[in-house]
Amino acid sequence: MTNIVTLDEFIITRQKDFAYASGELSGLLRDIGLAAKIVSREVNKAGLADIVGRAKNENASGDQVQKLDVMADELLIACLRNSGECCGIASEENDNYVPIKSKSSTNADYIVIFDPLDGSSNIDVNVSIGTIFAIYHRVTDRDETVSDEDFLQKGVEQVAAGYVFFGSSTMLVYTTGRGVNGFTLDPSIGEFCLSHSDITIPDDGNIYSCNQGGFRKWEPAIQDYTEECLNKSFKMRYIGSMVADVHRTLIKGGIFFYPASSSSPNGKLRLLYECNPLAFIMEQAGGKASDGRQRILDIEPTELHQRTPIFIGSPKMVERVEELVASYELEETFA
Ligand code: P6P
Questions:
Q1: From 4, 265, 325, 331, which residue has the greatest number of CB atoms within 10 Å?
Q2: pTM of the model
Q3: 3-class DSSP state for residue 146?
């Protein structure tokens, strides 16, 4: 008898923790796990097929879309459509949300928001990429078609969130609000196996992760924070793929940040399908996620593809950023 705990077994076991659980959420998580295995297969062979390289179109954010993005997006939508548990999706690759109107999903209670393949600009150079997802209860009546308000919910309303990390191995990390657990794909048996139980981030750290090339365009408080990291001889680690940088931060401690700048006043990263799900996971692991002034999960969304500055990681490091931002605001108030 092995002591392997597969993702499916774990989800079913944990479902018993939720008195109200009717199995719908468990089914949805298992379907996302299935999609992740298929995307993993395609990502891992991308270098061999002609799938690598640029698709013709661009996504809502104006990013050049890679073919793997399109494949991952279509695959996730297909899996979610077949699950019968999802009544609508929103994705980086679709300008607007997509109602799911299959017969089995008519009474579905969940909507899913995802970035099918984040960091896709790294595909051609074989650097880690990831899928990020957030799950919410719908807020409109089940007999109606989904609408904006089902998707423009605050991050605190998430029922579950996770990411699939296509790195040296493929990992699925998720939370349903009771801690964070990580599963590593064993291709020999085609199963995600529990490998990181109850992930907890160190309270403080000495790794900072940012695209320091933007330094001159950042507000003074963030320039001061970066210089503090330099003066303390912190390690600087930056992969340029949010899932990879946040995953390392979650496991080793530290801080990842993508601030606002004079050229991008709202930062670069998207609230609904990058920052909110990763913030939920980080908080569940004992970390913090802020835009420098407020908790990411408290931000009131106004549009599907809106961006936000983000500082995410060890609580003491995120709190230091917020202190510096507040001190500058105090100075401006009394200037
Ligand atoms: P920059 C990838 O394109 C992405 O959306 C995130 O995964 C990553 O953190 C960020 O952009 C990298 O941006 O400006 O450093 O290339």
A1: 325
A2: 0.94
A3: coil
- The finding on whether 288 has its CB within 6 A of some atom of ligand 1 is no
Residue 288 near residue 313 (C-beta atoms within 8 A): yes
Is 93 tagged catalytic?
yes
Å from CA of 242 to ligand 1 middle:
6
Report residue 322 as tokens.
């917020």
Query: Is the distance from the beta carbon of residue 122 to the nearest atom of ligand 1 less than 6 Å?
Result: no
Of all residues in the chain, what percent are helix, strand and coil, respectively (each to 5)?
Answer: 40, 25, 40
Provide the terminal-to-terminal Cα distance of the chain, rounded to the nearest Å.
Answer: 70
For residue 164, give the nearest of 122, 206, 117 by alpha carbon: 117
Q: Whose CA is nearest to atom 4 of ligand 1?
A: 119
Q: What is the pLDDT of residues 113-132, one digit of tens each?
A: 999 999 888 888 888 999 99
Angle at 172 between CA 248 and CA 65, to 5 degrees: 85
Distance of alpha carbon 118 from alpha carbon 198, whole angstroms: 24
